Amino acid sequence: MKKNIILFVVGVALSLNACKVSSQSKKTPQQEKNIEQKVDSVLALMTLEEKVGQMVQYNGSWDVTGPATGTTNEKKLQRLKNGLVGSMLNVVSVESTREAQRLTMENSRLKIPLIFGYDVIHGYKTMFPVPLGETASWDMILAEKTAAAAARETAASGVHWTFAPMMDISRDARWGRIMEGAGEDPFLNAEIAVARVKGFQGSDLASEKTIAACAKHFAGYGFAEAGRDYNTVNIGVHELHNTILPPFKAAAKAGVATFMNSFNEIDGVPATSSSYLQRELLKDGWAWDGFIVSDWGSISEMIPHGIARNKKEAALLAVKGGSDMDMEGGAYESSLESLVEEDKISETLLDDSVRRILRVKFQLGLFDDPYKYCDESFEETELYSEENQDLALEAAKKSIVLLKNENEILPIKNSVKSIAVIGPLADDKDSPLGNWRAQAEANSAVSVLEGVKNYAPKNVQINYAEGVKLSTGERSFLKPLSLNQTDKSGFEQAINLAKTSDLVVLVVGEDAYQTGEGRSQTDVGFLGLQDELMAEIQKVNPNVVMILMNGRPMDLTWSDENFPAILETWLLGSQHGNAVAEVLFGKHNPSGKLPVSFPRNVGQEPLYYNQKSTGRPNANAEVTYSHYTDSDRDALFPFGFGLSYTDFEYGKIQLSKNKFSASEEITASIEVKNTGDMAGEEVVQLYIRDLFASITRPIKELKGFEKISLQPGESKTVSFTIDAELLSYFGGDKKWVTDPGKFQLFIGGNSVDLQQIEFEYE
Ligand code: NOJ
Predict the structure, then answer these.
(1) For 277, phi and psi rounded to 5 degrees?
(2) Residue 365 Cα, ligand 1 centroid: separation in angstroms?
(3) pLDDT digit string, tens, across residues 153-199
(4) Does ligand 1 come within 6 angstroms of the Cβ of 218?
(5) Helix or strand (DSSP H, E) at 506
(6) Mutate to test the pocket of ligand 1, among 4, 57, 65 (most ligand atoms within 8 A of CB)
């Protein structure tokens, strides 16, 4: 992709021959006022055509995530020179961004700098774990650090803005983009969204080491029916507010500079044209003053949605709805001016959008120096630095979840003298990079095999067999994967190796391109011939440690019944293999906890822990209650679950009082002790249930967590403060309320194994 982008910009050069983002920025009210004055003074000089230009975003290459506008390179070049483009995406590197910026700065009338955006989802050149994986660390400081490192690499490449973090709650393992988010829980999503926004933006957007973040996709995209990407979303207003919006609201409050709207419709209204979401809630209700970019072509997609006959009608709907910038859709470019001239919209509507866009450009410092992010020496030292590799390793280790460890087969014992590393992903140096991999070099990750070789004691024999290929052919963002393997010729070698080794490390799961945009599946099991290979290996050696690589929750029912140990390793980025090896050999004690429920079979999806009671929750009846007749209804591995090499013992919950009122708060405390003989970390989780409310409420909801570190024998007391706000919800009268009455409070190490106590709010 990089090649295309450079080609476009260099090609262009040749033919020339030539929001108050207040809480995150350290700006004083006076500085903010100054920015507002500058914005107004620029706006006052702008023609209608130039205003529309600021609302247009062009792609630097073609067909990256959807059909492009069809605007030719020649026309793009002319518009850039005339100052009729506000932003470009997918233009990366100091060389390319400087060139594109120069075209605008040296030729346009008002010299308004471009803002360059890019999908930096879990790293720029150094890859960190995919966002779902990193969420399993439940480590907000870590999430902030990896976002900050990604921001430094991005900024060092001349790019000002990332289209991240994605904060779409998803409860559906079939949805390919579940990998890009933080899982199924609103509270955890909100915490991590804020951490990532802080990491990207730092305390000063104008620093050359920070970039603007983007809260996406606003809203409901992760609730696509049947988990099919881009599909219809049908949710009620309570679900919207209580489940989907909390991370967005938290990001807005944290000063995220931009939002991106979403491809989907909700209850008949495409998010791109939703003035309820974009104007009533975000811009007015939450008083957020950044700008909203559409998703790729989502404005023009209102034509196939069937609510606009042509681009002009689509532009009208979108601009009225509150979308400020058109990402590679061509609708604003072709229609906004005439819509104003025909009095269909007033120019002040555009002024509001342009003001928002200019504000972010001022906050980034681009008016002071449009080339301030163009520093080759910083680019050279920052990208893929040793420091970033160390952080990638730390993040990767902390994201690993130990799902099963029968007879303490892990960490690998000294008695093991030979290890067979088997599986289609065992020596895959590419899949750990994930699907959204920005500028990562293909095949640059440390594979599991390499990691095992790096960390195994010298006297241990390491052998490798691929067994079977998972995918064949080219791997790329825009090409479907070929996963229909029929070639079993590698089976024999793998089986023989398993037979003659003390231990098997079996690396299976998903190719990097099985998750991501447009990658929904109806099967969340092991595709290709993996099931067969797994069964054959299990027959000849019972000592199998399964290493799972994947971007979605998978059906592990068979594996759980047949393998003594399972490590969930997601797609961990550049240092994947080293991180896995540190866990295998006991150099790192795993502490990750699942941010999503893992099903027993795909038929349970969507599956989530914070479900409603229903009117028939109990098995009092033989048949007529809410369950399945062919499967349990609960998760195989629940939300919040993850084992450690040590044991943690929870004391009794202590409440500071049993009743409290609006002006008060109560504290729930619990002592946690490391009773094993290895130091370890535990995520102590607080859940609450509102027993009677004006609308039906979940059977429990995560309301707090703390990750603690304990030496063997050490204890710590963890305390959570509960106040009326923590208990509030968007209720029956469409307002945030806290109902008086009884609540259950639970504390434990996952969403199922919990202690319980009751309190009352008066
Ligand atoms: C479409 C995706 O939905 C969005 O997340 C991404 O930022 C844009 N394409 C730009 O690549």
Answers:
(1) -70, -50
(2) 25
(3) 999 999 999 999 999 999 999 999 999 999 999 999 999 999 999 99
(4) no
(5) strand 503-509
(6) 65
CA dihedral 152, 155, 156, 157 (to 10 degrees): 130
DSSP string, 86-109: -EEES--SHHHHHHHHHHHHHH-S
Please work out whether the CB of residue 326 comes within 6 Å of at least one atom of ligand 1: no
Q: To test ligand 1's pocket by mutation, which of 168, 218, 295 has the most ligand atoms within 8 angstroms of CB?
A: 295
Tell me the CA–centroid distance for residue 89 and ligand 1, in Å. 10
Question: Could you tell me which residues are beta bridge partners of residue 760?
Answer: 659, 742
Of 295, 430, 511, 555, which one is the catalytic site residue?
295
pTM more than 0.85: yes
| Pick from 156, 183, 180, 153: nearest CA to 171 | 183
pLDDT of residue 101: 94
Q: How far apart are CA 127 and CA 140, in angstroms?
A: 18
Closest CA to 58 of 261, 258, 330: 330
Which residue is closest in CA terms to ligand 1's atom 8? 296
Catalytic site includes residue 295:
yes
Select from 57, 163, 229, 231 the residue to mutate for testing ligand 1; criterion: most ligand atoms less than 8 Å from CB.
163
Q: How far apart are CA 534 and CA 418, in angstroms?
A: 19
- Who contacts 519 (Cβ-Cβ below 8 Å, separation ≥6)? 176, 177, 229, 435, 513
Report whether residue 436 contacts ligand 1, using a CB cutoff of 6 Å. Answer: no
Residue closest by Cα to atom 7 of ligand 1: 163
Q: How far is the CA of 165 from the centre of ligand 1 (A)?
A: 11
Beta strands in 195-279 (DSSP E): 214-218, 258-261, 265-266, 269-270
Neighbours of 326 (CB within 10 A): 34
pLDDT per residue as tens digits for the range 728-757: 999 989 999 999 999 999 999 999 999 999
Give me the residue label for tokens 């992760």: 222
Q: Closest ligand 1 atom, CA of 164?
A: 7
Give the pair of three-digit tokens for residue 79.
């518009």
Q: Check whether 1 has a pLDDT greater than 60.
A: no
Closest CA to 525 of 483, 567, 466, 488: 483
* CA gap 322, 275 in Å, rounded: 6
| Alpha-carbon gap, residue 435 to 129, rounded angstroms | 11
Output the CA 550–ligand 1 centroid distance in Å.
21
pLDDT interval class at 472 (50, 70, 90):
confident
Q: How do residues 201-213 score in pLDDT, each as one tens digit? A: 999 999 999 999 9
Phi, psi of 126, rounded to the nearest 5 degrees? -80, 125
Write the DSSP string, 421-458. EESTTTT-SSGGG-S--TTPPTT-SPPHHHHHHHHS-T
Helices (H), 437-575: 448-455, 491-499, 530-540, 557-562
* Dist CA 127 CA 435 (whole Å): 11
Using CA of residue 134, residue 136, residue 137, residue 140, what is the dihedral sign?
A: positive
State the CATH class of domain 648-761: mainly beta
Rounded CA-CA distance 171/67 in Å is: 29
70 close to 62: Cβ distance less than 8 angstroms? no
The fold of the 394-604 domain, in CATH, is Rossmann fold (3.40.50)
What are the domain boundaries of the chain?
A: 394-604, 648-761
Q: How far is CA 150 from CA 155, 177, 513, in A?
A: 9, 20, 21
CA-nearest residue for atom 3, ligand 1, is: 295
Q: Please state, rounded to an integer, the average pLDDT across all residues of the chain.
A: 94
Residues 6+ apart with CB under 8 A from 188: 135, 138, 182, 595, 702, 705
Q: Does the CB atom of residue 295 touch ligand 1 within 6 A?
A: yes
Q: Which one, of 584, 597, 578, 210, lies nearest residue 395 by Cα?
A: 578
- What's the 370 CA to ligand 1 centre distance in angstroms? 25
